[in-house]
């Protein structure tokens, strides 16, 4: 049974470039994704993700441990910002920090993440950025891929919503592999969000 259509108000958290954020914003603008980008938060004041948000007229906030040294205070500030913008789905897009318990409790089954490998392989502690692709190549894997999953307290272990395989090619370097995987990320993340918006993917049953 499919879920009801959702009036998605997306709240993004991103630490760096935000190319996945951009792919989702482009999908919204092109009419491929019925959703509203309500807020972008970054822990990094220099994140290109914040500039991308500002360029699209989306509220953009820098919230980090610098202003909120107490983890519970940062957790509370992020939660307050998401609620103020009436965010109903949190989209992690290269967010290098862990969400706190208040946000995770309030947005239970409503936090998505994208990972540049086929989880549960090549996930967990220390597996981010080029390190993921280095590990894939070091393992001699013939295939890698992209995973979109729900985030719970266990992080890279939440229920998987979608996966797509990407071949590892002879002569691949971590950089070439990363670029090939990223192209798939940019297509898969908006697609998964679209399925949620249309009620084709029920996060309660995922
Ligand atoms: C992506 O590879 C994503 O899978 C991972 O972090 C990277 C973010 O890239 N979680 P970008 O900031 O969206 O360009």
Q: What is the beta-strand fraction?
A: 15-25%
Q: Given the C-alpha coordinates, what overall shape results?
A: globular
Task: Give the helix/strand class.
Answer: alpha/beta
Strand line-up in the sheet with most strands? 3-2-1-4-5-6-7
Bound molecules: 5-O-phosphono-beta-D-ribofuranosylamine
Summed over residues and divided by their number, the pLDDT gives a mean of 96
- Tell me the distance between the termini: 12 Å
Q: Supply Rg.
A: 16 Å
Amount of helix: 25-40%
Low-confidence stretches: none
Largest sheet, strands/sense/barrel: 7 strands, mixed
- Count every beta strand, where a strand is a DSSP E run of 2 or more residues: 7
Total DSSP helices: 6
H/E topology pattern: EHEHEHEHEHEEH
């Amino acid at each position: 049974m499919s879920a009801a259509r959702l009036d998605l108000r997306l709240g993004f958290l991103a630490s760096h470039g935000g190319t996945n954020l951009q792919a989702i914003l482009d999908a919204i603008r092109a009419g491929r994704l019925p959703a509203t980008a309500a807020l972008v938060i970054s822990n990094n004041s220099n994140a290109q993700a914040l500039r991308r948000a500002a360029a699209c007229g989306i509220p953009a906030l820098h919230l980090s441990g610098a202003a909120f040294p107490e983890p519970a205070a940062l957790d509370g500030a992020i939660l307050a910002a998401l609620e103020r913008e009436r965010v109903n789905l949190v989209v992690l897009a290269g967010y290098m920090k862990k969400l706190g318990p208040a946000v995770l409790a309030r947005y239970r089954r409503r936090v998505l993440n994208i990972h540049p490998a086929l989880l549960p392989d090549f996930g967990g502690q220390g597996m981010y950025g080029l390190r993921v692709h280095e590990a894939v190549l070091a393992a001699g894997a013939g295939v890698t891929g992209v995973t979109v999953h729900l985030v719970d307290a266990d992080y890279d272990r939440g229920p998987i919503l979608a996966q797509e395989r990407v071949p590892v090619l002879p002569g691949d370097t971590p950089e070439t592999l990363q670029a090939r995987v990223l192209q798939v990320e940019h297509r898969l993340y908006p697609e998964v969000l679209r399925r949620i918006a249309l009620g084709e993917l029920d996060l309660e049953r995922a």
